[in-house]
Amino acid sequence: MERLQKVIANSGICSRRKAEKLILDGKVTVDGQVVTELGTKVSEKNTVEVNGVKLVASEKEYYLLNKPRGIVTTTIDDKNRKTVVDLIPTQKRIYPIGRLDYDTTGVLLLTNDGEFANMIMHPKNEIDKVYLAKIEGLVTSDAIHALENGVIVDNLKMAASKVKIKKVDSKTNSSFVEITIHEGKNHQVKKMFEAVGYRVDKLKREKIAFLTTDGLNSGEYRKLSHKEVSKLYVLANKK
Ligand code: URA
């Protein structure tokens, strides 16, 4: 158990003195109750919110990796191949949030925070996962409408929340399509296109919510800021 002001300050959002002021001003809740008592002790099990935003304990780690092609999205690979976790040096037991295929590139989040991982993955939270797919063939608007209305994949109806044709190139017989989904079923994008008669040649996850690979070369990573983690919680709770 730690003193509330210490827990707030350790999360990195402000100094201990500022934390004390926030508590005295009634801006802090513990498990939903406003707490104005400075000495209040809390543990990891308590949910602390400051100005309505959940506090992120500092021992939790959150990374954004620009996943390269040819790396498996697991913590350990039975064939001894390099995994996404090998690209991030940390003492913490982090794991990828959801899965990108061996040949898929782009935004991948990794963490040791199970609650955060579930929040990002759960379709009910409607966190956008935006992919750019290079498709073999010339994609029609009928196919786009079918993807938006829902197609049957592995006996489940799966609909994209948004689909946009970016380019159709008759010379190379290929198309680029941006598709936004909220779930993260195995090979979902590839299977959805397959269901409407197309093969995905290349796939990149361009975004998870507002997070992109901007500033990161393939294989590079960065830590998410406290603000970004909080913003994701705010987005999820709005749904
Ligand atoms: N959908 C796929 O088909 N593959 C991925 O890697 C991610 C989403």
Q: What's the helical proportion of residues?
A: 10-25%
The number of distinct helices, counting runs of at least 4 residues, comes to 6
Assign the CATH topology of the largest domain.
Alpha-Beta Plaits
The CATH architecture of the largest domain is: 2-Layer Sandwich
- Overall, the morphology is elongated
Computed structural class: alpha+beta
Query: Unreliable segments (pLDDT under 50, ≥5 consecutive)?
Result: none
Largest sheet: 8 strands, mixed
Q: What proportion strand?
A: 25-35%
Keyphrases for this structure?
alpha+beta, 6 helices, 4-stranded antiparallel sheet, binds uracil, 239 residues, elongated, 3 domains
How would you explain this protein's 3D organization?
- There is one protein chain.
- The chain has helices at residues 4-10, 16-24, 114-121, 141-149, 188-195, 226-237, and strands at residues 2-3, 28-30, 33-34, 41-42, 48-50, 53-54, 62-67, 95-96, 105-111, 129-136, 151-153, 156-158, 162-169, 174-181, 199-208, 221-223.
- It folds into three domains: 2-54, Structural Genomics Hypothetical 15.5 Kd Protein In mrcA-pckA Intergenic Region, Chain A (Roll), CATH 3.10.290.10; 62-123 and 212-237, Pseudouridine synthase I, catalytic domain, N-terminal subdomain (Alpha-Beta Plaits, 2-Layer Sandwich), CATH 3.30.70.580; 128-208, Alpha-L RNA-binding motif (Alpha-Beta Plaits).
- It is an alpha+beta fold.
- Bound molecules: uracil.
- Uracil binds at residues 100-101, 104, 187-190, 203.
Q: How are the secondary structure elements laid out?
A:
Layout: E1 2-3, H1 4-10, H2 16-24, E2 28-30, E3 33-34, E4 41-42, E5 48-50, E6 53-54, E7 62-67, E8 95-96, E9 105-111, H3 114-121, E10 129-136, H4 141-149, E11 151-153, E12 156-158, E13 162-169, E14 174-181, H5 188-195, E15 199-208, E16 221-223, H6 226-237
Parallel strand pairs: 9-15
Antiparallel strand pairs: 1-4, 2-3, 2-5, 5-6, 7-9, 7-16, 8-9, 10-14, 10-15, 11-12, 13-14
This protein binds uracil.
